[in-house]
Amino acid sequence: SRQICIFLLSTYTGGEPAESARWFYTWLQDTVSDFRVQKTLLSKLNYAVFGLGNSVYQEHFNSVAKDTDSWLHKLHGNRILPLGIGDNNVVQSENGGLEEDFVAWKGRILRVLNLEITPSHKPVDNEVNVAPSKIKVKENVIHEGKITSESSDNSEDEETIAMKKNSTIPIKNDVVDVEDLGVMLNNLGKAKADRELEVSTLQRVQAGPKTSISSLKKAELRDMVTPSLKEALSKQGYKIIGSHSGVKLCRWTKSMLRGRGGCYKHTFYGIESHRCMETTPSLACANKCVFCWRHHTNPVGTEWRWKMDDPEKIFNEALKNHYGLIKQFKGKLGHLRIRTIILFCKHNGKNLTDFLGVPGVQTERFKEAMEVKHCALSLVGEPIMYPEINKFIELLHGKEISSFLVTNAQFPNAIRDLTPVTQLYVSVDASTKESLKKIDRPLFKDFWPRFLKSLSALSEKGQRTVYRLTLVKAWNAEEIEAYANLVGYGNPDFIEVKGVTYCGESKASKLTMENIPWHQEVLSFTDKLVDNLPEYEIACEHEHSNCVLVAHKKFKVHGRWHTWIDYAKFHKLIAEFASNGGKNFDASDYMALTPDWAVIGHPAHGFDPVETRWHRKKNNKDIGGC
């Protein structure tokens, strides 16, 4: 039979199959184990399996594909090609990425089909042209964590099989013309070399990413951002910088440019949202949080294993791209008729928005936006992973740009070594080991000790520190007492309690609107939390962001809250810190009075009265934000 089944299988959290493959995976597992089923059940099945995984998850790397390939073979299925290993980890991937691995495997399977179907062994029209260096002849397969030779029911030896697979000369009844023997022996030698290379590659994949960056040759380091990843992030509005950084306009930057209100950091800390740049020097992260609104398109890792760009380059390109995005809000050809502008864009491949601008942008706000004053290092990924993060922060402060850095509490040493920032956040997404594993889906096996050490490291920082709690109904919204216990580890200055934002349906997340708490539910949770924290009180709220700020009572001076930041004072202090060899200062040295409209209980509910409240007419989702 010429019928062939090709299985493309991904591995989900904990080594589980994707939902769409769960029934088949379970059925196949049961069938293999059922003594009542004949082991020759699939003897007429021709099959090939390709796994989609990430070798960063060492324990479960491509486990679903490996199991399926093994079980099909145990039921006497005819494996026409060894298991294909697709690796989304560009550092470990044999061909430089998941898609590249698949292209190479696809080329090999088409070549196998061509040899079987075409008697003359000549290439067919639809054969994929893949460079020989990208195609590895795999004669060994990983099964159940071990490298095993591919079993074969026929009696042909390895050399004969290799000759048939690699020769373009027809072989009938194993009779070969003498003049063709030299060509075939040459092909055999190449096949053996390919097999040796494949064995070493599979061993490297099996071992996982344990090699430190210092032991990697410079030539082996790859870009973090692959072409497919760049395309995916670009569609989401990101501007990619170099090989591992990015910048994007926050929805609140757009809002405040039009005088429609700022973000919660404007309410809580006094930043000017239209002058805030949201960026990251590392698109990679050590978690795969279920509520991530970045659609899990960013790479993952536990250490830096990619090419590294210079911090000056990232800094300059971030500003350049940010200003480029801001400029799109001001039209370039506003004096021309709309029809003329449309025709111009159509014939020149330009974006219409670049020339029309955005309605309602205030001239004064636009001018101010062209001078960044704040930087939110919370865009995507884990900025603290970038080895030159301290230098990057110094460049920000050198231009009097305040720094708001968010970390996911998995790198305690990096937190300790971090230079002072304006405000340091730690994401506290759960209060127990079990719920943290379920919500953040961390890569580190010792994620819980790392989490607690990161919180403790926060208490050693002299500057403003924040716990960032994201509430997800039915996941972590009932662990109030456990959250209160975690406060003792880091003794943060502030605790932000925010309801998770619904980002639409996603194959990578099971969250629905039922998991999104109402603002009153967030307030209720926060009330119960501060009942367990005698040193803290609720200070502010930003109803529009579904966010509440809990502050340490030391920021309540003479009965009035001082959660805002004196940015001029901070830059003066940080300059003295840099020039005087590390002169210490703390959060109380640069605090400022919180305006009445931002304080909890005010009728404004955190909305700045100088702004104009805007109510959407359509139910369009804008998930951008920091």
TrEMBL record:
Signal sequence bounds: none
A single BP term in Gene Ontology: wybutosine biosynthetic process
Ranges for domain Radical SAM core: 269-539
A family per Pfam: Wyosine_form
PROSITE patterns named among the record's database cross-references: FLAVODOXIN_LIKE (PS50902), RADICAL_SAM (PS51918)
Catalytic activity, as annotated: N(1)-methylguanosine(37) in tRNA(Phe) + pyruvate + S-adenosyl-L-methionine = 4-demethylwyosine(37) in tRNA(Phe) + 5'-deoxyadenosine + L-methionine + CO2 + H2O
Needed co-factor(s): [4Fe-4S] cluster
Origin: domain of life: Eukaryota
Entries under InterPro entries matching the protein: Aldolase_TIM, Flavdoxin-like, Flavodoxin/NO_synth, Flavoprotein-like_sf, rSAM, rSAM_sf, tRNA_wybutosine-synth, tRNA_wybutosine-synthase
Chain ranges of the Flavodoxin-like domain: 1-110
Keyword annotations: 4Fe-4S, Iron, Iron-sulfur, Lyase, Metal-binding, Nucleotide-binding, S-adenosyl-L-methionine, tRNA processing
Functional pathway: tRNA modification; wybutosine-tRNA(Phe) biosynthesis
GO molecular function, one term: tRNA-4-demethylwyosine synthase activity
EC numbers for this chain: 4.1.3.44
Function: Probable component of the wybutosine biosynthesis pathway. Wybutosine is a hyper modified guanosine with a tricyclic base found at the 3'-position adjacent to the anticodon of eukaryotic phenylalanine tRNA. Catalyzes the condensation of N-methylguanine with 2 carbon atoms from pyruvate to form the tricyclic 4-demethylwyosine, an intermediate in wybutosine biosynthesis.
Family membership noted in the UniProt record: Belongs to the TYW1 family.
Designated name of the protein: tRNA 4-demethylwyosine synthase (AdoMet-dependent)
Origin species: Trichoplax adhaerens (Trichoplax reptans)
Lineage of the organism: Eukaryota, Metazoa, Placozoa, Uniplacotomia, Trichoplacea
